[in-house]
């Protein structure tokens, strides 16, 4: 079958399925700026022109069609009400909204040994790295009271959830801002779960005892720096078309499992055990370990080790 037929056939099938599924349910796609990754289409098409193998050409054409379908779907979902979604488009420049710095906090109880933090948000810039005497302190810049912070305690565990009310875009003089700074208490052992959509995330977790981190994102930029305070840390990333940079300490053994469709990978100072599996030297005998699992589509992945 001709490559062009595979491309157009895949494009219309995927786009039609996305619209159909969204009409009968709710696809919570937060990839509003996925269109910024359109140059990847040119890369895929260019590679397909160089590849002589028919199967390779067909696979690349199909991948390009799927990416283009996602870009078209999310762009329409973002800018119109034709496809129902979790977005609001404001045409008056945002005059109906108050823009301010808003603070959220929950106090720390010394009986809390473990804390679970859930973040649900769309477009924006999110940073975790500072410490606080509170259990959590959040400062947002953008639409006033645009988030809701809740806390539930049980036994010696505290469950925190920070959720964006709605992803809002406006066309006019005022530019959309959604900047979030998150500070955590150093004492509890933390589990962190992030549904980031299309976001820029900077997570410096070296000051915290981290057991589990999950990051789900579409078209995003993710920087993660892990530390040495936990005996075992597990980082799980599910991404679409994203840029992922991870720093792991040399003092800790680390294992990486990759399940990627078509990504560029730069993994430094790791031994390749087999396809998709990498480990640091002496991993089995290391007293402290980090386990990294990455499932992604068309992404750029960079993983390096650093000395504290």
Structure, described:
The protein has three helices and 21 strands. The strands form three sheets. Strands 6-7-3-10-12-14-20-16-19-18 form a ten-stranded mixed β-sheet, with no helix packed on it. A nine-stranded mixed β-sheet has the order 2-5-9-4-11-13-15-21-17, with no helix packed on it. It has a two-stranded parallel ribbon with strand order 1-8. The protein has three domains: 3-85, no CATH class; 86-189, no CATH class; 198-308, no CATH class. It is an alpha/beta fold. It is flat and about 65 Å long.
Radius of gyration over alpha carbons?
21 Å
The chain-level mean pLDDT equals 80
| Major beta-sheet overview | 10 strands, mixed
Tally of individual domains: 3
Number of strand elements: 21
Distinct helical segment count: 3
Give start-end ranges of low-pLDDT stretches: 25-33, 78-94, 169-173
Class based on secondary structure composition and strand pairing: alpha/beta
Helix and strand sequence: HHHEEEEEEEEEEEEEEEEEEEEE
Query: Could you tell me the strand content as a percent range?
Result: over 45%
Helix content percent band: 10-25%
Highlighted features:
10-stranded mixed beta sheet, 3 domains, 9-stranded mixed beta sheet, 3 helices, about 20% helix
């Amino acid at each position: 079958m001709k490559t062009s037929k595979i491309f157009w056939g895949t494009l219309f099938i995927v786009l039609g399925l996305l619209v159909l599924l969204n009409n009968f349910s709710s696809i919570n796609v937060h990839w509003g700026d996925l269109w910024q990754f359109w140059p990847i289409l040119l890369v895929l098409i260019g590679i397909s022109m160089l590849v002589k193998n028919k199967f390779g050409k067909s696979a690349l054409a199909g991948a390009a069609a799927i990416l283009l379908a996602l870009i078209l779907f999310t762009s329409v979902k973002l800018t119109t009400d034709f496809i129902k979604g979790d977005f609001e488009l404001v045409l008056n420049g945002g005059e109906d909204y108050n823009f301010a710095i808003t603070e959220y906090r929950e106090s720390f109880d010394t009986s809390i040994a473990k804390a679970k933090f859930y973040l649900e948000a769309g477009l924006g810039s999110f940073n975790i790295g500072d410490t606080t005497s509170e259990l959590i302190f959040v400062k947002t810049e953008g639409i006033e009271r645009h988030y809701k912070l809740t806390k539930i305690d049980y036994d010696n565990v505290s469950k925190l959830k920070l959720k964006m009310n709605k992803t809002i875009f406006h066309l006019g003089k005022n530019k959309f801002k959604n900047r979030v700074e998150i500070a955590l208490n150093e004492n509890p052992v933390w589990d962190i779960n992030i549904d980031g959509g299309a976001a820029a995330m900077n997570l410096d977790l070296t000051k915290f005892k981290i057991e589990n981190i999950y990051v789900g994102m579409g078209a995003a930029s993710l920087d993660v720096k892990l530390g040495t305070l936990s005996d075992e840390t597990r980082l799980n990333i599910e991404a679409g078309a994203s840029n992922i940079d991870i720093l792991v300490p040399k003092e800790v053994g680390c294992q990486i499992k990759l399940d990627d469709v078509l990504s560029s990978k730069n993994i430094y100072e790791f031994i390749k055990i087999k396809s998709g599996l990498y480990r640091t030297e002496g991993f089995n005998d290391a007293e402290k370990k980090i386990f990294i699992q990455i499932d992604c589509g068309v992404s750029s992945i960079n993983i390096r080790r650093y000395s504290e």
